Amino acid sequence: MPLIYRQIQSFFLLVALFILTGCSQTTSDLSDSFSLALFGTKDIAVPTERINTLPYASMYVRQGTGPRVFVVLGWVEGMDSRLSPQLKWLSAGEEMIVTEAGRIVKTVNLGNGNLSAIYAEQPDPLSLGLHKKTTPLTWQHTLNWQPGYHFGYSAISTFEKKGIESVLINGYSTELLRFDERVFVPSLDVTYTNSYWLTPLSGKVVSSQQTPAPGMDVIKFTILKPFA
Description:
By secondary structure, the chain is mainly β.
């Protein structure tokens, strides 16, 4: 049996374990879906036809200098209560990345630390659409992360439009609009830069390179099949 199918079977066992231990999922129309992740020591390359036939949103993810992995969306929360829903991507090793409007807003069980939460009084410019002229290009928010019990750290983001770039996605070159986000954490005197590649017309994030919190590895992801 090919490795990819053996890994799928192993993940079904993980899903069954969640059910038996009473882990509930508050979902929208993905309430009966599952999450699938294929991890290894080398970069994963899933055939385009395989990606297209899977009935789930999917993306490639790379953490730091680790291998590129293929992740399928597990479930969605906040379809009615948020400006943008939270998309939860869960690996077979129980690592989880949560994204909202293309921003990583939480991580669980990553090796070098985890982002616990991002919160702000004003909407994230990513959720408003960075491609719009009316969207503010500055944003103040608060970060919580671990280890070290870092809670309530104020951060200031400044966005800059970089122009159109060609990005290879699912075997095809796609013209995307790039924005860089300079994040400054005053209390630590730390600055880092996130990059986002958006669909020019919709403003949806297709690819990104983000540092979720100070000291964490950079996480890169590329959406292969978007959540609809």
